[in-house]
Write a structure and sequence with these properties.
Blueprint (H helix, E strand, L loop, with lengths): L3 H7 L2 E3 L13 H14 L3 E2 L13 H15 L4 E6 L3 H14 L3 E4 L9 H14 L4 E6 L6 H10 L5 E4 L4 H11 L5 E4 L2 H10 L4 E4 L6 H12 L3 H23 L2 H11 L16 H12 L4
Parallel strand pairs: 1-2, 1-8, 2-3, 3-4, 4-5, 5-6, 6-7, 7-8
Keywords: Lyase
Protein name: Dihydrodipicolinate synthase family protein
InterPro entries: Aldolase_TIM, DapA-like
């Protein structure tokens, strides 16, 4: 198969949409589609339903399916859809097949939720999912610093549809080594820690980055992408400085309010409710005003 269109979509801002809830706590379908249209109208070319910013682990199986179907329907031919899948192998395979049936072109495989992960087991886990959907592009979401480039290379050799890696280990030097050991050109390397890490990862091999901030301010994220593509690191760092405090709030206390900050900003803009599910929680009152003040000066 020709995976080049999917590879091109990953070499961009890969948006991770939030999942809004209504007053009864159910997925707010109309608001979700409106938020997606806002991203698509801004020029976003790749979206990941059921990502961590979309509260993947707080959604039921039925809700994850619903979000997948809503995203494919709204995106149409305007953007590539990269569906988050995970949990045990059977559940991940079932979700990947559902993504294929719904019309998505790719799946992102969440880091295996297991206390004991070996190199060989990591390869086997992803291989089982990739081989179940050979028509889809597959992108492992790598958060484990112990997974080596050689393991990723073995996975790529076995599964040609593994076309990219979302690398989310906060160590640019480690990323540079892993990417080269795995195959810098074999995979599309996506900086999985969003805008704060995008410049450093871009400098050593990433050609795309994920973003939750893009839900709030698409132009800001796309401005950073443009600067990085142009090799204009001073311009990229100007954006970095602009969004630094926002992203620091998201990352604080082991990312306790990663999604809460984004939803709070969207609530301040009148775009969705701030509601979030346990084990996350809504942003504390003192920080709500700070978030609202932060985004006032952005190009939104």
């Amino acid at each position: 198969m020709d995976y080049s269109p999917l590879r091109a979509a990953l070499a961009d801002v890969v948006a991770i949409p939030v999942t809004p809830y209504d007053a009864e706590g159910a997925v707010d379908q109309d608001t979700y589609r409106a938020l997606l249209r806002r991203l698509l109208d801004s020029g976003v070319k790749a979206v990941t339903p059921n990502g961590n910013t979309g509260e993947f682990y707080a959604l039921t199986l039925a809700e994850r399916r619903l979000v997948t179907e809503l995203t494919v329907a709204e995106a149409g031919d305007r953007a590539a859809v990269l569906v988050g899948v995970g949990h045990d192998v059977a559940t991940a395979v079932e979700a990947a097949r559902h993504a294929r049936e719904a019309g998505a072109g790719m799946v992102m495989v969440h880091q295996p939720v297991h206390p004991y992960v070996s190199q060989d087991g990591w390869v086997d886990y992803h291989r089982a999912i990739a081989e179940a959907v050979p028509e889809l592009g597959v992108v492992p979401y790598l958060r484990n610093p112990l997974i080596e480039g050689s393991a990723i290379a073995r996975l790529g050799e076995a599964c040609p549809n593994v076309i990219g890696v979302k690398y989310a280990v906060p160590d640019a030097a480690r990323f540079a080594a892993v990417a080269r050991d795995a195959g810098l050109d074999r995979f599309v390397w996506v900086a999985g820690l969003a805008e704060l890490y995008a410049p450093s990862y871009w400098a050593v091999g990433a050609i795309g980055f994920t973003s939750g901030l893009v839900n709030v301010a698409p132009k800001v994220s796309l401005d950073m992408l443009g600067a990085l593509r142009a090799g204009d690191y001073p311009a990229a760092m100007k954006v970095w400085e602009q969004i630094r405090r926002f992203e620091d709030l998201r990352a604080a206390q082991q990312s306790a309010h990663n999604v809460s900050v984004v939803k709070e900003a969207l609530a301040a803009l009148g775009l969705c409710r701030r509601d979030i599910r346990p084990p996350s929680s809504a942003l504390p009152e003192p920080q709500r005003a700070e978030v609202a003040a932060l985004i006032q000066g952005w190009a939104i």
